[in-house]
Every structure is written in structure tokens, then in C-alpha cells.
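The data are set out underneath:

___
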Amino acid sequence: MRRTVLAVITAVVLTGGGWLLAQQRPSQHGAPSIPPDIRAGVDLGFRVREMKDGRAIGTLVIRTKNGAWVEAHAGSTRGFVVPLESK
């Protein structure tokens, strides 16, 4: 009788723990975080400063090698977009 009760309690605890683990959001370890004001692709984004008449007003940004987002501008080097910090 004791073994049956112990087996039932163990089964309930393990099942409950598995169910709780399944309810968690998947973690994104190692994935770079994107600030909430940036609408982004992989390395190119748009930092929204404000919304005016249904249009987003902001700045073009690019992701650097260290994962930081920096403002970009059209450079004189054949029209490529380059980060401001590289000048």
C-alpha cells in the first residue's frame, strides 16, 4: 500500500513538473535582443522616434559586430549605408 501511494505521488509530481515546464516560453539564449523602438531585420533596422499622421518617423540603424544598434547614413563610398562610428 505504501509503495502504491509513493508511486502515485511521484507520478503526480513528475507530471505536474513536466506540464509546468511545457508552459514556459521558449528561451532565446544567444539571440540578440532588439530594443522595442527598433523595427528590424537581421542587421538593418528602423528606430521609430514618433508616429505622425499614421506614419513612422525615425532613423535608419544598423547592427554592429558587437550587437549594438547605431544610426546610419548614406556614405560617399558608392552610396553604401555605413555606421556613423566607422567614419
User: Anything to note?
Assistant: The chain has one helix and five strands. Residues 2-22 form the longest helix (21 residues).
